[in-house]
Amino acid sequence: MKVCFATEKSLNEVWQESLAKLGKHDLYVFGFNGLGLVSYKKELNGDTEYFQDVAKLSKQLSSVIICGCDTDTYGVFRHSAVVADRGKILGVSDMAHSIDDSEYASGGSFRVYDTSAGKIGVIIAEDLFFPETARVLALCDADFIVCLFKKLETAMPQIMLRAGAFANGVAMSLCASGYACVADIRGDITVARTADIIDAQIKIEKDYRLISSRRRGLYRDFNSGY
User: What is d(CA 149, CA 152) in angstroms, rounded to the nearest whole number?
Assistant: First the structure.
């Protein structure tokens, strides 16, 4: 899979200035600068057409676009990402966890999108810090997982990315402000660069490990709930 990460520029800036230079990719990933703040009220009233722009560009490129944004739902703010494929909006993913006293509220559940580039799972920002996020997407048969992150201030996002890829046997990528990286199913970083536009060739592979554990006394399967 050939992927283009636009880590700093907005979707319209790339559309107007850089599109001819990018070449053909299967997937284009824009960070949170891609759309900025999107008001659902203005979108529904027709005052803005941010989501429509994503759909139009995906049609023009005949590819998949994942674009980060902050959404305003009548005063409730969330970290989000819109996913489009060849002219059609497939959906919007929200950050599912709200940490401490964040001004951003938690949103919808995790989702794997069935696209022309394969089954792509989407992780929003600090959801990456919760191991069950990557696991749920892997169990839902994601071929590849994309995480959109605001700004890297510690090494923890890269650590969790590598751990998630290794533990779940699925390649994962991180797109943050000015930076993008990719971890393969062995947890190794195959791409890591700081630039506005970053190209990556990603090998889609899965690793299904046979896992056994000692059972003694009272035992309950991990997936059965508690």
Answer: 7
